[in-house]
Amino acid sequence: MVGDPLATADCLQITREVGFDHLLTGGKPYTTSCPLPFQADSVKTARDVTRRTLRGWGLHDLSDDAALVVSELVTNAVRYAMYAAGRREIELLLMRVAPHVLLAVADPSDEVPRPKEPDFISENGRGLYIVETYSQCWGWDPLARGGKAVWALFRADD
């Protein structure tokens, strides 16, 4: 549930005005980006970068939930965007816009992420359900260079 819809809208408006393409170039305060290859161990790397970054920002309590969501987003990118034309890597972005943290995973596929009805017996198909459950909200934005950024927003209580 979104606790403060106005603050959430403001955070998303900021990211959209700046643009994910610009944010992914890195070097901004309270922003971390990390390129990831299309391979299974990129999921672990993304979790580690997420935990380390959030702990560095003093957001220890958020690190486990955010790492779980990042795992799902990177897994989806590795699984579904691997054969998309263009870039051959995924990009992880973490951005602190108090009182929020925005996590985004960019990939070269233009395919829209579509949540499935979760099947709790199956070993897959629950990723976006987990993202929706643990984050305040999630969505995706097309990138000017092609592909998309799938993002999740968290409320960060210092």
Automatic annotation (TrEMBL):
GO molecular function: ATP binding; protein serine/threonine kinase activity
Domain of life from the UniProt record: Bacteria
ATP-binding in keyword set: yes
Stored Pfam families: HATPase_c_2
InterPro entries linked to this entry: Anti-sigma-factor_SerPK, HATPase_C_sf, HATPase_dom
Keyword list, A-Z: ATP-binding, Kinase, Nucleotide-binding, Serine/threonine-protein kinase, Transferase
Organism: [Actinomadura] parvosata subsp. kistnae
UniProt protein name: ATP-binding protein
Residue span(s) of domain Histidine kinase/HSP90-like ATPase: 37-136
